[in-house]
């Protein structure tokens, strides 16, 4: 990790997870760089990403179970992606490490297929779809059905039902 802001945010999250009091505004990321806490993501284009298992587990029940659940494997340190590009995964990971990043029309198509493992990110995508005026109700309903977005599906059905009363 080369980005100092990303390191600082990751360190703050890890401090909370590890129950360590934050003594300064900047903690050295090396304090948390225990190799057993890191996971490697490999892609077809030979790019490699590294991430903290603790940060991923904090963001996702899937990763919590995979890395720390009762069936977790001690040597589960490498994940290989054949169907996700490194560019798309980078955008996805930036939303995990920077949860205040905004969902946009551009990144929605990239994030939504990956967000099923990260509930907060999935909810952010669903809220974007609920609020955006850039898509028609039928388009929103397609997203709702494809990604099992119950609030969005309900809102689309309610809108269609209400609109049919006025026709």
From TrEMBL:
Pfam short name (any one): BTB
Checking SUPFAM superfamilies in the record gives: POZ domain
InterPro entries, per this entry? Answer: BTB-MATH_domain_protein, BTB/POZ_dom, SKP1/BTB/POZ_sf
User: CDD domains from the xrefs?
Assistant: BTB_POZ_ZBTB_KLHL-like (cd18186)
- All residue ranges annotated as the BTB domain in the record: 37-105
This one is known as: BTB domain-containing protein
């Amino acid at each position: 990790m080369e980005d100092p802001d990303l390191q600082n945010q990751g360190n703050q999250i890890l401090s909370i997870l590890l129950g360590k009091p934050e003594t300064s505004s900047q903690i050295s990321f090396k304090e948390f760089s225990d190799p057993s806490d890191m996971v490697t993501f490999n892609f077809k284009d030979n790019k490699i990403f590294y991430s903290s298992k603790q940060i991923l587990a904090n963001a996702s029940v899937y990763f919590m179970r995979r890395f720390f659940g009762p069936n977790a494997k001690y040597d589960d340190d490498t994940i290989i992606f054949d169907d996700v590009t490194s560019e798309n995964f980078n955008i996805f990971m930036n939303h995990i490490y920077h949860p205040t990043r905004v969902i946009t029309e551009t990144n929605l198509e990239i994030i939504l297929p990956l967000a099923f493992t990260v509930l907060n990110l999935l909810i952010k995508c669903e809220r974007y779809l609920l609020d955006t005026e850039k898509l028609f109700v039928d388009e929103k309903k397609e997203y709702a059905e494809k990604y099992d977005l119950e609030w969005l599906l309900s809102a689309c059905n309610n809108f269609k039902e209400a609109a049919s009363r006025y026709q």
